[in-house]
Structures are given as C-alpha cells and as structure tokens.
Protein: Odorant receptor
Organism: Camponotus floridanus
Amino acid sequence: MKKVRNWNDETHRAINVYEKVLGIIGVWPLNAGEPKSIVRCSIAILIQISTIGSLSLEAYRQCLGTEDMMEAFLMDLSSVVSLSKLLVIRLTWQHTYILVTSLIDDWSISWDARRREVMTRYTNVGRVVSLTILYLGYASGMSFLFMAIPFDDLIPWLNASKANNNATVMPTYFLATYCVFGSLSGIVHSCVLLLQAAQIFVNATSHCGNDGFFFGLTMHLCGQFEVLEMDFADIEVDERVCKRRMRMLIGRHCRLIKLADSLEYAFSMAIFAQTLMSILLLCVEGMQLLISLRLNDNIAAIKHIVLILTMLVQLYLYCYAGNQLESISERLAYSVYDSPWYDFDVKIMKNLPMVMLRGVIPHQITAGKFLPMNLFSFKEILKATGSYLSVLRMVIDT
C-alpha cells in the first residue's frame, strides 16, 4: 500500500487491523481509488446481493415451517444491514480518508510522554474492542459452518440410528436455503456451499470491520479532545508565547470540529441501519422468547436470549462511543476555564469566551441525523422495548 504519511510503530498498531479487514472487501479509504479495491468492493456487493435474494426467497416460500422462515428472515435482515454498511463506507470514503490521515499525522508528531499516554490509552481501548468484535463475528460465522456438518454421517452409531428410523435425509447448507436449492448434485451442491461460505465471510467482515473501524476512529478522536483539554489547561502566561500558543490551540479545536463532522457524515446512515435492525430484532426475538417460555422450550429460549444480548451489546458499543465523544468534547469549556486566563493579556482573554461557547456544544454521533447515540438513547431504547414486550406478554397470556 502506498503510504501517504510517515508511519511509525504506533501508527501501525493503531490502524493495521482496520487496514487488513477493510482491505479484504475493498473499502479501506487509503486504497479506495485503486482498481483492485474497486473490484473487491464490487465482488463483495454482488455476494451480499445474492445472499439477500436467496434468503428473501426462502423466507417467502416457508416450505419448512416458521423456524426455518425466521432463521432466513434474521440472516436476510443482517445481510441488508451489512450491504448498507458496505455501500455507505464506500461512498463516504473521502471523509474516512480525512480521519485516517489525521490519525497518521497525530502519531507522526513528536508528543511528550503525557500526551502519548493519553493517545495510547484510547488506542488500546479501540483496538481491544475492535478485535473482540472481529473474533466474535468470525466465530459466529464459523458456527454456521459447523451446524451444516453431517455429524450423523461421521459418527457411526448416529448414522445407524437414523437408518433404523428411516429418517428423510435433508440437504445440508450453511444458510437456511433448503426451499430455494433443494437437493442438488455433488458438484453443484459444493459450489453452493462455497458461495454461502463466501456470503457468511463477507457479511461478518462488513459488519465487524465497519463497527470496529467506527469505534477505533471515535476513540482516537476522544483522545485528541482530551489532549486539547490538557494543552488549554497548561497554556503559559507569557504574552508572546501565549498568543502563539492560543492561535495554535484554536486552530486545532477547529480541526477537531471538522473531524467530528466527518465522522458523523461518514457513519450516520450506517449507524441508522444498524440501530433500526437492532430495534426490530429486539422486538421480534423478544416475541419469540415469550412464546418459547410459554411452550417450555428452554433450548429455543436460550437461543433467543443469546441473540437479544448480542444485539444489545452491539447497540451499546455505538452508544458508548458516541457518549464518550459527546462528554469529552463538552468538557473542553471547563478546561479553558481552568487555565490561568485571569493573567492573560486582555486581547487574548477576549478569545476565550468564543472557545468556551463553542466548547459547551457537544459533538454528537447520530443515527440518521436525528437520534443521538449516547447512553440516554440506549436507555430509552431499552425502556421502549421493555414496554412493548410487557404489552405483548399480556396479549399472549390472555
């Protein structure tokens, strides 16, 4: 990859995960204009479209009952959101390019130990969370592959038991597409399995890569706001030094405001799609959980609980990242007030109210430009979901 900035060890550690994962599906912003990146992205989009088509047809036919239909519907919805994330991050690559190059520049500048410690702390948080999301996403994808393995053919006594019961042999697929493909010949069946393995891989990469990339960029931006707070608090009183330093810090504040706007523009619609899917799945899975509990189907109930918890954790990560950026950017005004402004020159002092007035306006990450992603919104979503399930439970009981 052509390096547009000077990379050091900290830079590689901060973004090498995102570079590798997003490069697979052709949406890494530093390579967005290269032909191979465009080809990879086009292939990923076509694979996702094929997933949506086959699963939508499966959910429509419902030839194997409600459980198969719900499994196809859930994966279909996940594929739609995954495709939305893929398209959004590709179409807004100019904004993510600005964010990534800014991150590289921040690590290339020689900071003192205290400021590097702040940046490293936020980078570690973003890296750990991103890797956790990635590993869990691929583990979830592997579960689809293992569920399709015919263990009854591999284990003799299971195969004998099935032969004695004259059970009907169902074709094995990685996704719920039994009604669409039915029984196929060996070569065609193998090709379908390879396609579905690619579909699962692209789905997991698009979901987890986008989520981890957003979280990592947001954490880095939070670190830069905290460093700016420290710089304002440590500003010197000497008139010439203070004037030059104040001009630099105000320029840095304006730069961070633009970066926060780029972050909002790049991920707002992807977050909206994710939030909409999470809310819909919380309601659908909550209804399925209530039905399973009423039927005393404990295995199905555990499956629905796990999926509900997964949706809540994914939604919480978006809300946590947005809440961190909102609270840290809002603290800037208090940092300016904590500086020795009372010893500044009058001309310099006149600039501080403007910085403080802008500082009290928090930078919010929104879902679709109208729902702020913070812990308050997360609480409201939980309350609304709980109210819906309470009413639904009363309806089921009656």
Q: What stands out?
A: Residues 9-157+170-397 form one domain. The chain has a mean pLDDT of 84.
